[in-house]
Specification:
The protein has 12 helices and 12 strands. By secondary structure, the protein is α/β, with parallel strands linked by helices. About 5% of the residues have low confidence.
Length: 340
Protein backbone atom coordinates (compact mmCIF):
# COMPACT_ATOMS: atom_id res chain seq x y z
CA UNK A 1 0.00 0.00 0.00
CA UNK A 2 1.32 3.43 -0.99
CA UNK A 3 2.54 5.50 1.95
CA UNK A 4 0.50 8.65 2.55
CA UNK A 5 2.59 11.81 2.19
CA UNK A 6 2.21 15.40 3.30
CA UNK A 7 1.33 16.25 -0.31
CA UNK A 8 -1.62 13.85 -0.13
CA UNK A 9 -2.83 15.54 3.04
CA UNK A 10 -2.55 18.99 1.47
CA UNK A 11 -4.48 17.87 -1.64
CA UNK A 12 -7.26 16.27 0.42
CA UNK A 13 -7.57 19.35 2.67
CA UNK A 14 -7.42 21.81 -0.22
CA UNK A 15 -4.55 23.78 1.28
CA UNK A 16 -0.89 24.31 0.49
CA UNK A 17 1.84 21.94 1.64
CA UNK A 18 3.22 24.83 3.66
CA UNK A 19 -0.02 25.09 5.65
CA UNK A 20 0.10 21.38 6.52
CA UNK A 21 3.74 21.75 7.49
CA UNK A 22 2.96 24.72 9.74
CA UNK A 23 0.33 22.70 11.58
CA UNK A 24 2.62 19.71 11.97
CA UNK A 25 5.31 22.01 13.37
CA UNK A 26 2.99 23.65 15.91
CA UNK A 27 2.70 26.90 13.96
CA UNK A 28 -0.39 29.05 13.82
CA UNK A 29 -2.94 28.82 11.00
CA UNK A 30 -6.61 29.70 10.86
CA UNK A 31 -8.78 27.29 12.90
CA UNK A 32 -10.93 26.39 9.89
CA UNK A 33 -7.86 25.32 7.92
CA UNK A 34 -6.49 23.42 10.89
CA UNK A 35 -9.77 21.47 11.12
CA UNK A 36 -9.56 20.59 7.41
CA UNK A 37 -6.01 19.35 7.80
CA UNK A 38 -6.80 17.33 10.92
CA UNK A 39 -9.76 15.76 9.11
CA UNK A 40 -7.57 14.90 6.09
CA UNK A 41 -4.92 13.40 8.39
CA UNK A 42 -7.58 11.24 10.03
CA UNK A 43 -9.24 10.16 6.77
CA UNK A 44 -5.94 9.27 5.12
CA UNK A 45 -4.53 7.76 8.32
CA UNK A 46 -1.44 9.88 7.86
CA UNK A 47 1.19 9.16 10.50
CA UNK A 48 3.20 12.26 11.41
CA UNK A 49 5.79 11.98 14.14
CA UNK A 50 4.68 12.32 17.73
CA UNK A 51 5.86 15.90 18.07
CA UNK A 52 3.81 16.97 15.08
CA UNK A 53 0.65 15.50 16.55
CA UNK A 54 0.50 18.29 19.09
CA UNK A 55 -1.57 20.86 17.21
CA UNK A 56 -1.57 23.65 19.75
CA UNK A 57 -0.47 27.22 18.95
CA UNK A 58 2.50 28.94 20.53
CA UNK A 59 3.65 32.50 21.00
CA UNK A 60 7.11 33.28 19.69
CA UNK A 61 7.58 36.92 20.79
CA UNK A 62 8.95 37.57 17.30
CA UNK A 63 7.84 39.33 14.14
CA UNK A 64 9.17 38.77 10.62
CA UNK A 65 10.13 41.51 8.19
CA UNK A 66 10.29 39.93 4.73
CA UNK A 67 11.90 42.12 2.07
CA UNK A 68 13.15 41.94 -1.49
CA UNK A 69 16.60 43.35 -0.73
CA UNK A 70 17.69 44.32 2.78
CA UNK A 71 20.64 46.31 1.37
CA UNK A 72 18.08 48.79 0.01
CA UNK A 73 18.24 51.97 2.11
CA UNK A 74 14.43 52.08 2.29
CA UNK A 75 14.09 48.66 3.91
CA UNK A 76 17.03 49.05 6.27
CA UNK A 77 15.60 52.34 7.60
CA UNK A 78 12.14 50.83 8.08
CA UNK A 79 13.71 47.77 9.74
CA UNK A 80 15.42 49.98 12.31
CA UNK A 81 12.11 51.67 13.17
CA UNK A 82 10.35 48.31 13.46
CA UNK A 83 13.06 46.96 15.74
CA UNK A 84 13.09 50.08 17.93
CA UNK A 85 9.36 49.80 18.59
CA UNK A 86 9.18 46.02 18.97
CA UNK A 87 12.13 46.01 21.36
CA UNK A 88 10.15 48.20 23.77
CA UNK A 89 7.60 45.42 24.06
CA UNK A 90 10.15 42.59 24.29
CA UNK A 91 9.57 41.36 20.75
CA UNK A 92 12.39 40.48 18.39
CA UNK A 93 12.51 41.15 14.65
CA UNK A 94 13.52 38.46 12.17
CA UNK A 95 14.76 39.79 8.82
CA UNK A 96 14.30 37.57 5.80
CA UNK A 97 15.72 38.58 2.41
CA UNK A 98 13.38 36.78 0.02
CA UNK A 99 14.72 38.19 -3.28
CA UNK A 100 12.63 38.27 -6.45
CA UNK A 101 12.67 34.65 -7.64
CA UNK A 102 10.60 31.73 -6.34
CA UNK A 103 8.97 33.92 -3.73
CA UNK A 104 6.06 31.58 -3.03
CA UNK A 105 8.28 28.58 -2.26
CA UNK A 106 10.60 30.66 -0.08
CA UNK A 107 7.68 32.09 1.88
CA UNK A 108 6.16 28.65 2.26
CA UNK A 109 9.43 27.30 3.63
CA UNK A 110 9.93 30.27 5.94
CA UNK A 111 6.48 30.10 7.52
CA UNK A 112 6.65 26.33 7.87
CA UNK A 113 9.94 26.56 9.74
CA UNK A 114 9.51 29.79 11.70
CA UNK A 115 6.92 30.47 14.35
CA UNK A 116 6.24 34.22 14.33
CA UNK A 117 3.43 36.27 15.86
CA UNK A 118 3.12 38.60 12.86
CA UNK A 119 4.78 39.51 9.59
CA UNK A 120 5.58 42.66 7.64
CA UNK A 121 5.98 42.11 3.90
CA UNK A 122 7.78 44.26 1.35
CA UNK A 123 7.99 41.86 -1.58
CA UNK A 124 8.42 42.33 -5.32
CA UNK A 125 5.15 40.78 -6.52
CA UNK A 126 1.47 41.70 -6.37
CA UNK A 127 -0.38 39.18 -8.52
CA UNK A 128 0.91 35.77 -7.47
CA UNK A 129 -2.12 33.58 -6.58
CA UNK A 130 0.06 31.12 -4.63
CA UNK A 131 1.47 33.91 -2.47
CA UNK A 132 -2.01 35.36 -1.94
CA UNK A 133 -3.35 31.96 -0.89
CA UNK A 134 -0.46 31.33 1.48
CA UNK A 135 -0.87 34.70 3.20
CA UNK A 136 -4.63 34.24 3.49
CA UNK A 137 -4.11 30.93 5.30
CA UNK A 138 -1.83 32.37 7.99
CA UNK A 139 -3.53 32.97 11.33
CA UNK A 140 -1.24 35.84 12.26
CA UNK A 141 -1.45 39.59 11.67
CA UNK A 142 0.00 40.56 8.29
CA UNK A 143 0.98 44.03 7.09
CA UNK A 144 1.90 44.62 3.44
CA UNK A 145 3.95 47.59 2.30
CA UNK A 146 3.30 49.28 -1.07
CA UNK A 147 1.68 46.28 -2.75
CA UNK A 148 -1.99 45.73 -3.61
CA UNK A 149 -2.07 42.04 -2.74
CA UNK A 150 -5.36 40.20 -2.49
CA UNK A 151 -5.28 39.41 1.21
CA UNK A 152 -8.48 40.73 2.78
CA UNK A 153 -7.42 40.38 6.40
CA UNK A 154 -4.07 42.13 5.99
CA UNK A 155 -3.29 45.73 6.83
CA UNK A 156 -1.67 47.88 4.17
CA UNK A 157 0.62 50.91 4.17
CA UNK A 158 1.12 52.80 0.93
CA UNK A 159 3.25 55.83 0.19
CA UNK A 160 1.53 58.54 -1.85
CA UNK A 161 3.37 57.90 -5.10
CA UNK A 162 0.62 59.59 -7.10
CA UNK A 163 0.83 63.02 -5.48
CA UNK A 164 4.57 62.71 -4.97
CA UNK A 165 5.35 62.24 -8.67
CA UNK A 166 2.60 64.62 -9.73
CA UNK A 167 4.07 67.34 -7.49
CA UNK A 168 7.56 66.73 -8.86
CA UNK A 169 6.26 66.93 -12.43
CA UNK A 170 4.35 70.13 -11.62
CA UNK A 171 7.54 71.65 -10.22
CA UNK A 172 9.56 70.84 -13.33
CA UNK A 173 6.82 72.24 -15.56
CA UNK A 174 6.84 75.45 -13.49
CA UNK A 175 10.57 75.73 -14.26
CA UNK A 176 9.84 75.65 -17.99
CA UNK A 177 10.43 71.95 -18.68
CA UNK A 178 8.12 70.25 -21.16
CA UNK A 179 10.15 67.21 -22.20
CA UNK A 180 10.19 65.30 -18.92
CA UNK A 181 11.18 61.62 -18.72
CA UNK A 182 10.04 59.28 -15.96
CA UNK A 183 12.00 56.10 -15.11
CA UNK A 184 10.22 53.68 -12.79
CA UNK A 185 9.45 50.03 -12.11
CA UNK A 186 6.98 47.59 -13.63
CA UNK A 187 3.37 48.68 -14.05
CA UNK A 188 2.45 45.37 -12.40
CA UNK A 189 3.08 46.96 -9.00
CA UNK A 190 1.45 49.83 -7.15
CA UNK A 191 4.35 52.34 -6.88
CA UNK A 192 4.96 52.43 -10.63
CA UNK A 193 1.26 52.52 -11.55
CA UNK A 194 0.56 55.39 -9.18
CA UNK A 195 3.70 57.28 -10.20
CA UNK A 196 2.84 57.05 -13.89
CA UNK A 197 -0.71 58.16 -13.16
CA UNK A 198 0.57 61.20 -11.27
CA UNK A 199 3.04 62.05 -14.05
CA UNK A 200 0.39 61.81 -16.76
CA UNK A 201 -2.18 63.85 -14.83
CA UNK A 202 0.34 66.64 -14.23
CA UNK A 203 1.18 66.77 -17.94
CA UNK A 204 -2.49 66.70 -18.97
CA UNK A 205 -3.46 69.53 -16.63
CA UNK A 206 -0.85 71.74 -18.30
CA UNK A 207 -1.98 70.65 -21.79
CA UNK A 208 1.40 69.08 -22.46
CA UNK A 209 1.64 66.03 -24.71
CA UNK A 210 2.41 62.69 -23.07
CA UNK A 211 5.18 61.05 -25.04
CA UNK A 212 5.14 57.35 -24.29
CA UNK A 213 8.79 57.08 -25.34
CA UNK A 214 9.66 59.23 -22.30
CA UNK A 215 8.01 56.74 -19.94
CA UNK A 216 10.50 54.03 -19.02
CA UNK A 217 8.87 51.25 -16.96
CA UNK A 218 10.75 48.09 -16.08
CA UNK A 219 12.45 47.46 -12.76
CA UNK A 220 13.53 49.28 -9.60
CA UNK A 221 17.22 48.51 -10.17
CA UNK A 222 20.42 50.34 -11.03
CA UNK A 223 20.72 48.24 -14.18
CA UNK A 224 17.37 49.52 -15.41
CA UNK A 225 18.44 53.09 -14.67
CA UNK A 226 21.56 52.50 -16.78
CA UNK A 227 19.51 50.99 -19.60
CA UNK A 228 17.01 53.87 -19.59
CA UNK A 229 19.65 56.61 -19.74
CA UNK A 230 21.52 54.72 -22.46
CA UNK A 231 18.35 54.90 -24.53
CA UNK A 232 17.75 58.59 -23.88
CA UNK A 233 21.29 60.00 -23.86
CA UNK A 234 21.02 61.37 -27.41
CA UNK A 235 17.79 63.13 -26.44
CA UNK A 236 19.48 64.67 -23.43
CA UNK A 237 22.42 65.92 -25.49
CA UNK A 238 20.05 67.42 -28.08
CA UNK A 239 17.78 68.95 -25.42
CA UNK A 240 14.88 66.76 -26.48
CA UNK A 241 14.79 65.65 -22.85
CA UNK A 242 15.45 68.40 -20.32
CA UNK A 243 14.32 66.78 -17.05
CA UNK A 244 14.14 63.29 -15.52
CA UNK A 245 12.26 61.84 -12.55
CA UNK A 246 13.54 58.51 -11.19
CA UNK A 247 11.30 56.12 -9.26
CA UNK A 248 13.71 55.24 -6.46
CA UNK A 249 17.27 55.08 -5.13
CA UNK A 250 18.46 52.00 -7.06
CA UNK A 251 17.35 53.59 -10.35
CA UNK A 252 19.04 56.85 -9.32
CA UNK A 253 22.35 55.02 -8.83
CA UNK A 254 22.22 53.72 -12.41
CA UNK A 255 21.26 57.12 -13.77
CA UNK A 256 24.15 58.84 -11.99
CA UNK A 257 26.61 56.26 -13.31
CA UNK A 258 25.50 56.99 -16.87
CA UNK A 259 25.60 60.74 -16.34
CA UNK A 260 29.20 60.39 -15.20
CA UNK A 261 30.07 58.21 -18.18
CA UNK A 262 28.55 60.64 -20.69
CA UNK A 263 29.65 63.82 -18.87
CA UNK A 264 26.10 65.01 -18.25
CA UNK A 265 25.99 67.98 -15.86
CA UNK A 266 23.07 67.69 -13.44
CA UNK A 267 21.13 70.93 -13.12
CA UNK A 268 22.71 72.28 -16.29
CA UNK A 269 22.32 69.70 -19.07
CA UNK A 270 19.33 68.08 -17.37
CA UNK A 271 17.24 68.58 -14.23
CA UNK A 272 16.80 65.57 -11.98
CA UNK A 273 14.37 64.56 -9.22
CA UNK A 274 14.40 61.16 -7.48
CA UNK A 275 11.79 59.39 -5.40
CA UNK A 276 13.25 58.75 -1.92
CA UNK A 277 15.78 60.74 0.04
CA UNK A 278 19.11 59.16 0.97
CA UNK A 279 22.66 60.04 1.89
CA UNK A 280 23.59 59.73 -1.79
CA UNK A 281 20.87 62.19 -2.81
CA UNK A 282 21.96 64.59 -0.08
CA UNK A 283 25.66 64.38 -1.01
CA UNK A 284 24.88 64.87 -4.71
CA UNK A 285 22.35 67.62 -3.91
CA UNK A 286 19.58 65.79 -5.77
CA UNK A 287 16.03 67.10 -5.39
CA UNK A 288 13.82 64.35 -3.99
CA UNK A 289 10.29 63.23 -3.32
CA UNK A 290 10.76 62.42 0.35
CA UNK A 291 8.71 60.08 2.52
CA UNK A 292 9.13 59.62 6.29
CA UNK A 293 10.62 56.13 6.28
CA UNK A 294 11.25 55.90 10.02
CA UNK A 295 7.71 57.06 10.79
CA UNK A 296 6.37 54.52 8.31
CA UNK A 297 8.21 51.76 10.13
CA UNK A 298 6.89 53.01 13.47
CA UNK A 299 3.28 53.00 12.23
CA UNK A 300 3.76 49.50 10.80
CA UNK A 301 5.04 48.17 14.12
CA UNK A 302 2.27 49.64 16.25
CA UNK A 303 -0.38 48.45 13.80
CA UNK A 304 0.61 44.78 14.12
CA UNK A 305 1.12 45.06 17.86
CA UNK A 306 -2.42 46.43 18.13
CA UNK A 307 -3.72 43.61 15.95
CA UNK A 308 -1.93 41.09 18.12
CA UNK A 309 -3.18 42.28 21.49
CA UNK A 310 -6.56 43.42 20.12
CA UNK A 311 -6.58 46.57 22.20
CA UNK A 312 -7.16 50.24 21.56
CA UNK A 313 -4.17 52.42 20.71
CA UNK A 314 -3.50 56.08 20.10
CA UNK A 315 -1.77 55.12 16.87
CA UNK A 316 -3.72 55.02 13.60
CA UNK A 317 -4.67 51.74 12.05
CA UNK A 318 -2.62 51.19 8.92
CA UNK A 319 -5.44 49.45 7.04
CA UNK A 320 -5.43 51.28 3.72
CA UNK A 321 -3.23 54.03 5.16
CA UNK A 322 -1.56 56.31 2.59
CA UNK A 323 1.55 58.15 3.80
CA UNK A 324 2.06 61.63 2.28
CA UNK A 325 5.32 62.74 0.71
CA UNK A 326 6.97 66.13 0.37
CA UNK A 327 9.18 67.64 -2.33
CA UNK A 328 12.68 68.69 -1.27
CA UNK A 329 14.31 71.08 -3.74
CA UNK A 330 18.08 71.02 -4.13
CA UNK A 331 20.49 72.12 -6.86
CA UNK A 332 19.71 69.29 -9.30
CA UNK A 333 16.72 71.19 -10.70
CA UNK A 334 16.94 74.47 -12.58
CA UNK A 335 14.85 76.64 -14.88
CA UNK A 336 14.74 75.86 -18.61
CA UNK A 337 14.03 78.61 -21.13
CA UNK A 338 14.89 76.73 -24.32
CA UNK A 339 18.29 78.38 -24.77
CA UNK A 340 20.64 76.00 -22.93
Amino acid sequence: MKKVTINDVAKRAGVSVGTVSRILNNKRVKPMLQEKVERAISELEYQPNSAARNLRTNKSKAFAFIVTDISNFTFSTIAKALNDVLDKYDYSLILYNVGKANIESKLEHFFSMRNVDGAFLAIAEENNPKVNKLLSELDIPILILDRQIDCKEADFVFSDYYNGVRGATDHLISLGHKQIAFITGSLNIYPAREGVRGYKDAMKLKDLPIREELLYTGDFTADFGIEAVENMITGIKQQEITAIITGGNPILVGVLKMFQKHHVMIGNDVSLISFEDSELAQIMSISVIRRPLYDIGTKMAYTLLDRLIQSESEHLSASGLIIPTDLVIRSSTSAYDGTK
